[in-house]
Amino acid sequence: MALVSLSAMCHTVTSAFSCVGGGVVTQKAAMGFTKTRPLLRPGRRLCVVVTQTRAASAGTDTDNRKARKAGKQSANALAVHKRLKADDSYFWKLKGESFSRERMDRKTATELFGEDKSGPGSEFPSSSFEIESDTPVTRSGEVGKDVRAIDEFGEDFRNVVPEWTFDNLTKNDRMRYRKPSPIQRHCVPLALAGHDVLASAQTGSGKTVAFLLPLISSIVRQGGDARNTFGAISDSSRDPARPKALVLAPTRELALQIENEIEKLTFGVPVAENSVNNRWSAAVYGGSSARPQLQALAAGVEIIVATPGRLVDFLTRSPPMLSLSSCQFLVLDEADRMLDMGFEPSLRKIVEGSDLPRREKRQTLLFSATFPQELQNVARKSYLKPKFVSVAVGKVGKSNSAVEQRVVRVVGTGTKQDKFTTLVEIMEPSKTNVDEKVRIARFPNPDTVCRLSRVITVYYIHHK
Predict the structure, then answer these.
(1) Which listed residue, of 17, 138, 420, 430, carries a Cα 20 to 30 Å from 284's Cα?
(2) Which pLDDT band, with edges at 50, 70 and 90, does 247 fall under?
(3) Same structural domain, 440 and 311
(4) How do strand 389-393 and strand 197-200 relate by DSSP bridges?
(5) Is 170 in a helix, a strand, or coil?
(6) Are both 152 and 210 inside the same structural domain?
(7) What phi and psi, each to the nearest 5 degrees, are found at residue 381?
(8) Measured between alpha carbons, how far is 456 from 176 in angstroms, rounded to an integer?
(9) What is the Cα–Cα distance from 35 to 61, expressed in whole angstroms?
(10) pTM of the complete model beyond 0.85
(11) What is the rounded CA–CA span in Å between residue 136 and residue 307?
């Protein structure tokens, strides 16, 4: 029978012994004190077994934990490596099969634009941006002074954009635009004229359409042929995807929102027949399976909307799945937020470390809600041509008046589930208006939900 009989003051027994017979046994410990205890009945053997020190035991436990952690990390790294290899094989397999299948998640007109309520006597509100048409706009720069702002999306504007884009933008059963917002009035003609633009506008002021209209129009105007000033492109099964435009966004939600706007503006129109690409756009972002995104890249897309992390991943595969050598346009949406979120190293890899054409051979549009000095310095150094146009609309950093913001205190302990439950209760259709339709946008951190209506309501839910 093994006994461990150590005092709290002494962690090590200095000797091990056994004794047969009656009487007592004395244990001498490392701290210099003695302890006596009676032996068992005569004829029984008592063994005192020396145990390892607590310090040594703790050290062993720590080593074991480190070894287990290192083993898990190694296993995870191996699993990631296998998954990446499987994705690589999947992509090149699709390329070898000349994959061109239509996207399975293509949305219908009702899903994109809502129900068609056109008919006699129907009235359609024009863009809510008209309420701020008198917002002051400041333009500066050595170029673009002769470019006039546009006052409305009328017949004159039809001549500078593809007809189908104009129809999708202005028809009553489509996007129903009448007049451009202030940022659109200036940035659309400037970008169509080929100038680089650094634009700052209030949140919710229509920046997405402001850069998508000239981007899509310029791609169509320059033709679908992938052979351009950046070199001839062969349609080989071993060639990576080669988009003609790149839009960078800081979050997955914004990337999906931008792609949704592209789907609206290009609805019902296939890519040019002489293009090597088969789809208009694809969103490339992390936090989800890469397989649907690889399918889109294998089919070929004209416009890539991407978050920096996943894009760098695709660019740095061996061999790379994606090449930016044919990109004629680079757009950074919410550029200030990308810098705040620490994406500058990834942006540097994309803009300076990839095969993206240098700024002299591409057109760059930077959109931001604020104009921090850091952003201006980075833009002048790496992104924009030496001569570009700055456009500032309204008060920098202010939200558009069409965006109503409320702060609501959540009931409960402040968990994500408590916040989401509160949001669902807030966003439920009112009982007095059964026809009111509310769409709830779920985010990884469900702190924000938007009511998609005439006035956008943004709720910030906090426990404290």
Answers:
(1) 420
(2) very high
(3) no
(4) parallel
(5) helix
(6) yes
(7) -80, -40
(8) 17
(9) 30
(10) no
(11) 32
